[in-house]
Structure formats: C-alpha cells, structure tokens
Amino acid sequence: MALVTSEGASSSSFTHQPNKFDVFLSFKGEDTCFGFIGHLYKALCQRGINTFIDDSLQRGEEISASLLKTIESSRILIIVFSENYASSTWCLDELAKIVECKNTDQLVRPIFYNIDPSEVRNQKGKYGKALSKHEKKLKDNKKLQSWRKALCEAANISGWHYKHDCTEFEFIQEIVEEISNFKLNRMPLFVAQYPIGINSHVEAIILQLEIGSDDVHMLGMYGPGGVGKTTIAKAVYNKILDHFEGSSFLEMLEKGQGHLMALSNYKRYFFVRP
User: Fold this and answer.
1) Which of 37, 209, 217, 220 allows an S-S link to 271, with CB 3.0 to 4.6 Å?
2) 38 near 86, Cβ under 8 Å?
3) Which residue, 151, 184, 217, sits at the end of a domain?
4) Which residue range is the domain that position 139 belongs to?
5) Distances in Å between the alpha carbon of 23 and those of 45, 57, 81?
6) Rounded CA gap, 175 and 157, in Å?
7) What is the pTM of this model?
8) Residues 68 and 146 in one domain
C-alpha cells in the first residue's frame, strides 16, 4: 500500500481527543439554572444530545482540572451570557478555556440571554462593573486581561440572542435544532470491529493533510484489495471530522473507482484506489 500526495509531508499541530460530551454548557447558575438552562438542558437531552451541565451552585475559587478536561473533550461549547455571568471568576475561567479550545477547532457558540452582545464585547454596564471589582481583588493582572480578551472574542462569535420576540420555548427549540443538525452531520463511520494496528497509518496521513493550513491538499492511497485502505480512510475521516464545516465520504461501489472523502471549509480531498 502506498500514499501519493500533492504536498510534501510536514509536521502538524493537529491533536485529537475522544469526545465525552456533545455539548458543554457554561452559565451563571443564579441567573439561569432554575429556568432557561434547565429547560435548554432538558430539551437537548430529549433530542439525544449528550450534554454536560455543572449545576452545583457552591463553587470554589479555582476551576477544577477535571472540569477543564470536560471542556476539552466536548464537541460543542455553549456560553450562556446572562446579566451576572462576569461576576463569577469561575465562569470567566471557563470562558477563557472555551475560547482557547475554539482555536483547536471545537465549535463555540454564545447565547445572549437578557443581555446585549455589545455589553459583553465592550465590557460595559454590569460586565464592566464586575470586571472592575475583580481588578481590585486580583493580584494577577494577566488573568484579568485574559478574561477581557475572552469576553471580546466570544461576543464576536455568531450565536443566539434572546430578544423576547418569540417565546422562550421557541428560542430553545431553535438552538436545539441547530445543534442537532450539527451533530447529525458529524456521525462517525463504522471502521472495524477490531481496528488493530492502524493508528500509525492514520497519524501519518493526518500529518500529510496538514489540518489548519490554508493550502489545498489532495492525497491518494492505493494498493491491492484487502490490505485495509478503506478501513484506514474511515478512521482518518472520523478523527478529523469535527475540524470541518462540511464533509462526506463517498463509496464508489464499482470496481476500480475507489472512495472519495471531501471535507469543506479547508479544502482536503482524500482518494482511495483499489
């Protein structure tokens, strides 16, 4: 079995971590826990979307390592910006981590609930007051700046703004529908019952594809039938699926046609020939 590529091999910063949850919800409990968040969480679960919610109102000053891991291993990260979100250092630490994960291609979406996006973006009103209070208590100005940067960056992401122009139920259904469609478009392929010994081949191919670069890449894999080309191709597809806005895996059943994997937003094409 051999690989043919339109670009030379190079190093890649791509890493993959198995997803524990479909959705991670970041929110200020006192604002939303017994109303909006509770209804959103229930609606997501009813649609079969595995959602993480930390509904403990008693939180310490430091965000736990296990919670950071949960954020890293969730496919979709949703921030519910409410009136008092910025008053919680815990929420702001979650936010900073979520924005960091956005840069590793996890999907991040904000919800603006009873708050205008400009207030979050520019840290005005209650958000400005909350940050001023934190500034007086904090010795670490670097952390404060990271919070400010995260708030600005997150507020500029396309999301949902509840403007009271529909019922809260309708608003939640719109969110759930979009998340459900995203999840359905990201269903992994069945690779093999016992996919032993393919990891090294998969990682070699991912290096060739240079996920995250702006270049167009085309890669072909060929060899005699039965050596595992299609199995490897499916494993690669599953590993890099969440890094693209659109994807498809086309199996050409006629002899000699092979398979084609196409992923859009970065242009990557992967061919398997018998």
Assistant:
1) 220
2) no
3) 184
4) 21-184
5) 10, 20, 16
6) 15
7) 0.64
8) yes
